[in-house]
Amino acid sequence: MTVGAPERTTLPSLGRVYRTRAGVEVKEFFRQRESVVFTLVFPVVLLLALGAVLDYDLGAGVDFPQYFMAGVITAGVVGSSLQNMAIHIAGERSDGTLKSLAGTPMPKSAYFVGKVVQVLAVTAATVALLLLVGVAVYGIDLPSGTDWLTFAWVTVLGAAACTLLGIAVSSLARNGRSASATVTPLALVLEFVSGVFLPFDQVPGWLQDLASVFPVTWLAQGLRSVFLPDALAASEPAGSWELGRVALVLGAWCVAGLVLCVLTFRWQDRGTG
């Protein structure tokens, strides 16, 4: 009797693993009703509420809803990347999901690729919803011509930088239960001092300098450049939109965020074996 050679198992390609993991992350997010409502609907509620209450002219014929459009999109990006990412990863660390994934043959990089794809998908949905509501309710003037290209690269770079920062910040929470209390105040403070909820020139100078260290400030500034007339660039700290510096700082944060992730990421809660 001849015993045949054992069959060789063919492992899926890295690209297929990445696509599968990305699909899992996107599906899991949209199945969580609370996360979907908070991440997608909250920025819309913010736009509707503040746009209705704060009705004043900011100069150059710009009303508050038009000015706030850049800020509320920034808040949506921060919510879906930095805040949502940090809280969810801390939860997955506490409930053992990360430990289980680390013990599978799946490349660990696939986990992070899946998270980034999830953030980009949620960001696209959030931005589309905000633009739709902004135009329908307040008659927001949309970007035109090359401003759409600027809008795209600023949003993608900002989302990437905030995602990596969120992954790093997830390690600050001791466990999943404390994640929201740890991360949400940090995100809100960053948004306030970065000119997301009020004109940046009304933020004290020393806070402007502090905020300029982080990517949220530059994301908001880059988005203001596509929703506001050039006349309002004079209100920026440098008197211009500084799109070159916006690209440089957000790109640098992508690199710095990646380094922080490598140095700080934990697959288990502190104190566990």
Topology, pairings included?
Elements: H1 14-31, H2 33-53, H3 64-94, H4 97-102, H5 108-138, H6 147-169, H7 176-193, H8 205-211, H9 215-227, H10 243-264
Characterize the structure shown.
With 273 residues, the protein is an all-alpha fold. The chain has one domain (14-264). It has ten helices and no strands. The longest helix has 31 residues, at 64-94. The model has no long low-confidence stretch (mean pLDDT 89).
Descriptive tags:
10 helices, mainly alpha, 273 residues
Give the SSE order as H and E letters. HHHHHHHHHH
Radius of gyration: 21 Å
Overall geometry comes to: globular
Largest sheet: none
The percentage helix is: 55-70%
Give the overall average pLDDT.
89
Task: Give the CA-CA distance, first to last residue.
Answer: 49 Å
Transmembrane segments: 36-54, 66-91, 112-138, 150-169, 181-200, 246-265
Organism: Geodermatophilus obscurus
Main location: membrane
Subcellular location: Cell membrane; Membrane
What does this entry show, briefly?
Residues 34-268 form the ABC transmembrane type-2 domain. The chain has 273 residues and is an all-alpha fold.
